[in-house]
Amino acid sequence: xxxxxxxxxxxxxxxxxxxxxxxxxxxxxxxxxxxxxxxxxxxxxxxxxxxxxxxxxxxxxxxxxxxxxxxxxxxxxxxxxxxxxxxxxxxxxxxxxxxxxxxxxxxxxxxxxxxxxxxxxxxxxxxxxxxxxxxxxxxxxxxxxxxxxxxxxxxxxxxxxxxxxxxxxxxxxxxxxxxxxxxxxxxxxxxxxxxxxxxxxxxxxxxxxxxxxxxxxxxxxxxxxxxxxxxxxxxxxxxxxxxxxxxxxxxxxxxxxxxxxxxxxxxxxxxxxxxxxxxxxxxxxxxxxxxxxxxxxxxxxxxxxxxxxxxxxxxxxxxxxxxxxxxxxxxxxxx
Length: 335
Known about the structure:
By secondary structure, the chain is an alpha/beta fold.
């Protein structure tokens, strides 16, 4: 259902025309990614949303579901450099950020930048590194800059961290604190492929098929899309709708929701911000210059699932955050 637009019709039309242009480009990006990645269309779309809205992604899946291939493919399509960092218990902050090294021939110290100075970063199994390393990465994500021995360096733009964690293994891991998990714009769950998709995966990886990925966008165009994303119109009605959803996670009684024994802590203000930013990106992908309630619903689970902290009772009753989000979205009426 479309909202009543208070912005001038002329301005809305201009925004929609630009969105349509970007939508066609994004459609080519998705088609190109599907040449290399089988059966993860929704995941590809959500990663593109995070890139457009300039946010970071937390990916949760069992091993072997093409997370590394996904980030490499997206980097090739977007014509940016990428790196994979395998997080381990013996990793140090300097291994990610960089350090100063002594040059004996000149008798001086020189800054050696770490892998954080790439555009797209796959932080593989982030929960395997100790808290000090996790904090170093998350601080760089938030500030878009790092300090190495007193010198501050800006990180490259665009800058995307795609961090993964394995949900089935807890041994030798360090749980990410909730306050740090909140810095990820989206949390995406990757599921197993279907039987038909599995056959395609086998065919592509056991034959002589050579897949060439063509670049679609340049860094400058990505930055332009990120800037335009902020201009996409979100009516005051949409802002109130988002505020109601977030308020319902904190004060369920106000909305006749029986969730007091299920939600321990509701979503933070970051959730409101990312619901709007990601919804704007979803509107752009769909060729619209304005946000509608369906855009909010489309990305609500990815924005909220890592920001709700449930009680022990909820976990004992096998109630997860996705179920709670479903209940809230069903209760809060769309404008």
